[in-house]
Amino acid sequence: QKEVEQNSGPLSVPEGAIASLNCTYSDRGSQSFFWYRQYSGKSPELIMFIYSNGDKEDGRFTAQLNKASQYVSLLIRDSQPSDSATYLCATSGGYNKLIFGAGTRLAVHP
Amino acid sequence: NAGVMQNPRHLVRRRGQEARLRCSPMKGHSHVYWYRQLPEEGLKFMVYLQKENIIDESGMPKERFSAEFPKEGPSILRIQQVVRGDSAAYFCASSLPGQGDEKLFFGSGTQLSVL
Question: Which of A62, B8, B53, B93 is deepest in the core (most CB within 10 A)?
């Protein structure tokens, strides 16, 4: 049974700082990883995906994958109050069957 | 280009009643997935359907829950004899055949409240 673990938070950072969100996974064979942002009462929105070891950057977001340590992270640079949301880490269970962590709540305060 | 449409947005049922949740996938998408999100938890996979076929229902509770995706019309998630523990947000997602996991699009969800 694949599992994805996240610290529930809240993670509180000041505006302009770097927010670092972390995730670990149980299945060493997992290949693909996703970060979703979910505002309260809204649907999850994909913001990053990563398949290879190392870093992947997209604007203010950087996803980092370390398969040896079974660890995925998301860095948000220059955090804004609008980034305040729950961030869900997920891995693929096959056939678009995503396995989600419980999410980390991020609060960016002015 | 409309996204994944779910209705109703909110559904209130009393214990023992039936709940029907509808999902219209994005135009051209023939694969539909249902996920459930309990309060303070992540999304849990329930079922994966293609037109007129259930491909993977490994996440569906064994009793009271069923899903269909007919040739015409929306996908339906049906919960019979609801109990308070069924209260959750139910999200539908859709994709094109053969697309990778990053091409999964979620609807806005149906919030089911069981009194």
Answer: B93
- Residue-wise pLDDT for A29-64, tens only, equals 888 999 999 998 888 999 999 999 999 999 999 999
Give the Cα-Cα-Cα angle B109, B90, B78 (nearest 5 degrees).
120
Per DSSP, what are the bridge partners of residue B95? B31
Distance CA B32, CA B21 (A): 13
Question: Would you tell me which residues 1-30 of chain B have a C-beta closer than 8 angstroms to some C-beta of chain A?
Answer: none
- From residue A38, how far is each of A29, A42, B37, B67 by CA, in Å? 27, 6, 12, 25
* Cβ <8 Å between A88 and B42: yes
What per-residue confidence (pLDDT) applies to B82? 98
pLDDT of residue A9: 85
